[in-house]
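Handout, page 2. Input:
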Amino acid sequence: MTTTTPSIRDRIAALDWAPMTKDLDSFGCTIVKSVLTREECRSLAAMYERDDIFRSTIVMARHGFGRGEYKYWSYPLPEIVAGLRTALYPPLAAVANRWNQSMKIDVRYPETHEEYLERCQTLSHKSMADPSGLPFCTGDSSSRGSRVNSSSKKTTD
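Output:
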């Protein structure tokens, strides 16, 4: 008998978001358990050594942020990463919208990741750019927003 692993979207939808939302509210983070299979985790971990699928690597010590590094994926994203991003966006946007409302921040995130990307694309066409010329989507939690265009060349900071 062969069993099929549910889609990432189905696995995220099946999560009990009440305790995770409570953790987000209390601690600003939560643990999402048992979403990825062991094979998917190993596959993602193995990708880290492949420079060709990342557009940038940040070495934290160079910026005084401690030890370690992180990388920005190149587009197109690996299927599993894209699936996680799309599936996790709606429940996290709901949390962000609730937080913004409680802080009287007049920014609301769309319900779907696709709508969010459309909003960012629309704003980028209105020349919403920082001095580097890369467009940002306003309304992000950071003061600068989030990058819309990832077409920049691979760099190491």
